[in-house]
Design a protein that fits this description.
Length: 454
């Protein structure tokens, strides 16, 4: 039967079906059978129980066996645990002919790296208490008998220095010497019966932009023997740090306070540089993440050997001229732009080349000289070393002359010249650093100045 309700234009259909049963009548000689009304209820209960059991069985089948019902496991919740054996890193030898993974490079070199802790005196505070500064850095072993390389700014003015190895051993270290211009220094420890493991040295000439690199260092002075990795971002990057030009390897590995002095490894596990500085924005002094620099190792290896043998760098060039009136601007030949000489050192390089007081140097090699500062910068640059010979151009009595000059060594300077040069350097303003901020690893702060170190 169908019913149509048009009140709301909605159609509802009600359907019922009654099968037509043939009419039967009881036999007159039989009593009508009485229907037992309990059986439908029993059947309904059985069907409900079957449905419940079936649903439970189906859920269990789905959880334990999947949709195909192929598994008969009773567990309904499982956590999958890998049975793969952990990889054991083998310590390999650095041969320079086989590329290594980062774990292999770390295992091969971590025992050659050190954490450096320096204490230096900073005078006395307003209460008469001695103030000391603490600083930290990194370094690496280059000889079995205990020579260690680091940055000069890490150990500068240090009164006591200690180095720690990965196995926990700590040694007092002696500062052999260093060079501020190249930011390199050498320490020496007495390892006793322990045979140290030196690193393997290569040159940055083996690097290409995009090569993988890594370093092991002591970031923040606390996270000892941490691995940092990245890529070579640029080679031969020229940056200016406090007026000193540096030829750097630019890397994308994070370089933080405490990393300075650590080794830079190539993919073969060889040292190709010394992590030295972090570049920042000088206007805000904010550091830039993922941007670091390293000194090419070949630029300082001769200096390192020089320090080990002589306790100092003996290759710095010395010209042997002075200008005691440089800061007053008193130049009798005011119409000539150059470095006015008020005196020359007897027996020095300049005197041997024929220069004398009153001359005005206008060119050194191919570098134009317009002031005394220009001359100091040119002589003290990394372009000239002791023993090098170049052409010097100067003006005397209005005439231009040239001569060949052979530089001496700063170690041969008379004491009077050293004093004069130090005074001149104090009066010369540093060159702009073109946005480069040099971060040392000092942990001193304002409170240290008054209440001592932490």
């Amino acid at each position: 039967m169908f019913e149509n309700n048009d009140n709301n234009n909605n159609y509802e259909y009600h359907y019922s079906y009654q099968p037509q049963q043939p009419e039967t009548r009881p036999s007159p000689w039989e009593e009508p059978k009485k229907h037992n009304k309990r059986w439908p209820k029993v059947v309904a209960a059985v069907l409900c129980a079957a449905l419940l059991l079936g649903g439970t069985f189906g859920a269990g089948w789905f959880l334990s066996g999947g949709r195909d019902g192929s598994s008969d496991k009773e567990d309904t919740t499982q956590v999958m645990v890998s049975d793969r054996e952990p990889v054991e890193v083998q310590t390999v030898s650095v041969t320079g002919s086989q590329k290594l993974t980062f774990p292999e490079i770390y295992a091969a070199n971590v025992d050659s790296c050190v954490s450096i802790y320096v204490v230096s005196s900073a005078g006395y505070n307003i209460f008469g208490q001695q103030v000391v500064n603490a600083s930290s850095g990194s370094g690496f072993v280059i000889t079995k008998d205990g020579y260690i390389v680091t940055n000069y700014h890490v150990i500068e003015d240090g009164s006591t220095v200690q180095v720690s190895f990965n196995d926990g051993t700590t040694y007092d270290a002696q500062i052999v010497g260093g060079d501020a211009d190249y930011d390199v220094a050498v320490l020496k420890i007495d390892p006793g019966d322990k045979e140290l493991k030196p690193v393997v040295i290569d040159t940055s000439g083996s690097l290409l932009v995009g090569d993988d690199i890594m370093t092991i260092g002591n970031p923040l002075g606390e996270l000892t023997f941490s691995l940092s990795d990245g890529r070579v971002s640029c080679l031969n990057r020229e940056i200016n740090v406090d007026g000193t030009p540096f030829n750097m390897i630019q890397i994308s590995a994070p370089v933080n306070h405490g990393n300075s002095g650590g080794p830079l490894f190539n993919i073969y596990g060889e040292v190709v540089g010394i992590v030295s500085a972090k570049y920042g924005n000088s206007s805000s002094d904010s550091s830039v993440e993922g941007l670091g620099f390293a000194i090419p190792i070949e630029d300082v290896m001769d200096l390192i050997k020089d320090i080990m043998e002589n306790g100092q760098v003996t290759s710095h060039a010395w010209l042997g001229v002075e200008n005691r009136q440089a800061n007053n601007g008193q130049n009798p030949q005011s119409n000539v732009a150059g470095a006015y000489i008020t005196g020359v050192t007897a027996g020095g390089p300049a005197e041997k080349a024929g220069l004398k007081a009153g001359d005005v140097i206008t060119m050194l090699g191919t570098t134009q000289i317009t002031s005394w500062t220009d001359l100091q910068t040119a002589v003290g640059s990394k372009s000239f070393k002791a023993g090098d010979t170049t052409t010097i151009t100067y003006v005397r009595d209005g005439k231009v002359y040239t001569a060949e000059v052979t530089f001496g060594s700063t170690t041969d300077m008379p004491e009077d010249d050293k004093t004069s040069e130090q005074q001149d350097q104090q009066n010369v303003q540093p060159q702009p650093n073109n946005g480069g901020t040099y971060y040392d690893d000092s942990m001193e702060n304002f409170f240290n100045q008054f209440f001592g170190s932490r």
